[in-house]
Amino acid sequence: MKVLKFGGTSVGSAQRMQHVADIISDNEKKIVVLSAMSGTTNSLLQAVDYLRVGNLTGAADVVNLLERKYEKETAELYLTSSMQESVWEKLKTYFFEIRSLLLESYSNQIEKRIVSYGELISTLMFTSYLQEQNVDAVLMPALSFMRLNADGEPDMALTQQLLHEQLGQYGEHRIVITQGFICLNAEGKIDNLKRGGSDYSASIIGALSDAEEIQIWTDIDGMHNNDPRFVDGTQPVPQLSFEEAAELAYFGAKILHPTCILPAKMKSIPVRLLNTLDPTAPGTLISNDYKKGKIEAVAAKDGIAVVRIQSDRMLLAYGFLSRVFSVFEQHKTAIDLIATSEVAVSMSIDNLSRIGDIVEDLRKLGTVSFETGLSIISVVGDLRSDNLGFEAQVIDALKDIPVRMISYGGSDHNISLLVSTDDKVRALRALSKAIF
Ligand code: ASP
Ligand code: MG
């Protein structure tokens, strides 16, 4: 069995939903995981923002607009007026519930409940559409199996047990549809897997049901070997290893949620990235295989700062780095790249919210400076030492661009360089030209 996840744009309108129905119309059994229709999660969060500041008219306007959009989409989606009316009745109940929640005072829990309606609505609409088309499809509620533990992480053991129970009940149907993103937390309350979390849902479901493949359907034909927004003529990468894909997912290849990879990788289940707009395109296959000695892709991430600390106390001393790192830990800020010399360490971070406190605390340990407005450029592929020359190729491509920091050797799959964001596009183009 395969698990297929369709993102917000793939189910973004009645027409798009009909198209997804075509894509899944072969006779194979599958579990289909859906996001909310594109824009819906943002709108619901916008309504919650209005609630937070007490602007109830603002919230009501957003909800009214959203409701009208759904009225139009349901009118377009169904063939029979009986199906259309019955779905629209249910959606009206959902909107009634959303409005009732917006009458309460803001809390995290209210937010989670409101935002969950995006996926509840898209899956209801899509399942009803398939049923109207006489497809053997059924809705399996994510809230009856997807669970978080007390740390807010997926509770794999419990989710597995519940998922198997649910599949026992629904698994006879050819197409089992479920919601991405939403779940229950350890207290049994509605929660979610964070923005973009439907990919994660699909990966968890695929891993826990021993699927033969997990397919992530979006509106681009796989991971590209460079950023198509800045570089012309980028190509989809046909095949990546899990490690390579994980590096790329972090470094801005937004198509895949970074954590999504882990459950699939643990079970060695291949993940295929496919394009709803071009369903026969090969896309990108992510698995345990990799192409030996090949540089696969270049990616970039903006909004990076580098913090540098210099101290004579570091020279030939132990324990210095651990004191430096503990400052970042205290301020709950992850370090991405590190470069050290005998007397200085540079560290890059992408969360700048605590940078003032971090710098202040680090000043107790040495001389500190920091710089913002940087981008990480990451070159990903099989970079093991029996493949000579690729570092030279990368550095040579960037010979006209000031490089602030280089991190190499941390893994066999990636070399990362820090440049000013003003130089990013030039760096990406130069690398594409030199490597691909
Ligand atoms: N609908 C959620 C979001 O917009 C989850 C997802 O689409 O993956 O973040
Ligand atoms: Mg997404």
Which ranges are low-confidence, i.e. pLDDT below 50, for 5 or more consecutive residues? none
Query: Based on helices, strands and strand pairing, what is the structural class?
Result: alpha/beta
Q: Are any ligands bound, and if so which?
A: aspartic acid, magnesium ion
Rg for CA atoms: 24 Å
Q: Overall mean pLDDT score?
A: 94
**Proportion of beta-strand residues:** 15-25%
> Which shape, going by the Cα principal axes?
globular
Spatial ordering of strands, largest sheet: 3-4-2-1-7-9-10-8
What order do the SSEs take from the amino end to the carboxyl end, as H and E?
EHEHHHHHEHEEEHEEHHEEEHEEHEHEEH
Major sheet attributes: 8 strands, mixed
End-to-end gap: 36 Å
Tally of DSSP β-strands = 16
Helix content: 25-40%
Please give the count of helices. 14
Structural summary, described in words:
With 436 residues, the chain is α/β, with parallel strands linked by helices. It contains 14 helices and 16 strands. It has helices at residues 14-23, 40-52, 56-77, 81-101, 108-115, 117-132, 156-170, 198-208, 242-250, 261-266, 320-330, 355-362, 390-397, 424-435; strands at residues 2-6, 30-34, 137-139, 175-179, 182-184, 190-192, 213-218, 239-241, 271-275, 284-287, 295-310, 338-340, 344-349, 367-381, 403-411, 414-420. Strand 3, helix 7 (156-170) and strand 4 (175-179) form a beta-alpha-beta unit. The longest helix has 22 residues, at 56-77. The mean pLDDT is 94.
